[in-house]
């Protein structure tokens, strides 16, 4: 039994066992919504995403929480195994205080409709940089990761080794407000002046 779990853990950590289907930024939000509503498969998938830092920041406490929740109240053996293996992989990287925090989060969880604010931070967060502002007050331009955008313009930039779609919603005096495809809330990126 332990060898089987170790084998599954090795496959998960190596990325051989994929998170269900092709995961992208828009499906990450869908997975989070389903996980919050109590969907066990989504909880196992979210645990795996958080453990590996795929599309979002790596978070062992949340990986533990979702992995543990995925094992509760389901008869689907594959979901239980993925949840267990992911939870156990997270435990190996956590301090006793972090494990205690994870247990508190599991105990406090109540299935509910997710809010936009609860979505995990995307992996590219902090990697899209506003490197310049130009133009007149009426015709402002923003340079994001080396690409120039006018207000209302859409385009692609590279971040976290991936190409992401950006829609420049507003250009302010020292910031730009953008929407990233698949991420449901606008983000304000401040110009650092460097």
Task: Produce the secondary structure layout.
Elements: H1 2-14, H2 25-36, H3 40-52, H4 60-70, H5 77-91, H6 96-108, E1 130-134, E2 141-144, E3 147-150, E4 154-159, E5 162-171, E6 175-180, E7 187-190
Antiparallel strand pairs: 1-2, 2-3, 4-5, 5-6, 6-7
Order of helices and strands: HHHHHHEEEEEEE
Number of self-contained structural domains = 2
Q: Provide the structure class.
A: alpha+beta
What is the averaged pLDDT score?
Answer: 80
Tally of individual helices: 6
* First and last CA, distance: 55 Å
Largest sheet: 4 strands, antiparallel
* Uncertain spans: 4-22
Can you count the beta strands? 7
Beta-strand percent range: 15-25%
Oligomer: single chain
Strand order in the sheet with the most strands:
4-5-6-7
Please characterize this protein's 3D structure.
With 194 residues, this protein is α+β, with helices and mostly antiparallel strands. It folds into 2 domains: 2-118, no CATH class; 130-190, no CATH class. It is 40% helix and 20% strand. The chain contains 6 helices and 7 strands. It has helices at 2-14, 25-36, 40-52, 60-70, 77-91, 96-108, and strands at 130-134, 141-144, 147-150, 154-159, 162-171, 175-180, 187-190. The strands form 2 sheets. Strands 4-5-6-7 form a 4-stranded antiparallel beta sheet, with no helix packed on it. A 3-stranded antiparallel beta sheet has the order 1-2-3, with no helix packed on it. α2 crosses α3 and α4 (60-70) packs across α6. It is elongated and about 60 Å long. The protein starts with a helix and ends with a strand.
């Amino acid at each position: 039994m332990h060898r089987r779990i170790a084998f599954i853990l090795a496959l998960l950590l190596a990325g051989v066992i994929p998170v269900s289907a092709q995961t992208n930024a828009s499906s990450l939000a869908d997975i989070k919504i389903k996980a919050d509503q109590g969907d066990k498969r989504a909880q196992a998938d979210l645990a795996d995403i958080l453990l590996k830092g795929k599309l979002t920041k790596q978070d062992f406490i949340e990986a533990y929480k979702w992995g543990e929740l995925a094992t509760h109240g389901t008869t689907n053996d594959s979901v239980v195994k993925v949840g267990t293996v992911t939870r156990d992989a997270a435990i190996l990287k956590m301090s006793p205080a972090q494990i205690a925090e994870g247990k508190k989060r599991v105990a406090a969880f109540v299935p509910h409709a997710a809010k936009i604010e609860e979505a995990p931070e995307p992996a590219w967060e902090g990697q899209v940089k506003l490197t310049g502002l130009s133009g007149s007050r009426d015709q402002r331009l923003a340079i994001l990761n080396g690409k120039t955008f006018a207000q209302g313009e859409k385009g692609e930039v590279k971040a976290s080794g991936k190409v992401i779609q950006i829609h420049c919603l507003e250009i302010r005096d020292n910031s730009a407000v953008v929407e990233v495809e698949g991420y449901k809330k606008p983000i304000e990126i401040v110009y650092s002046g460097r």
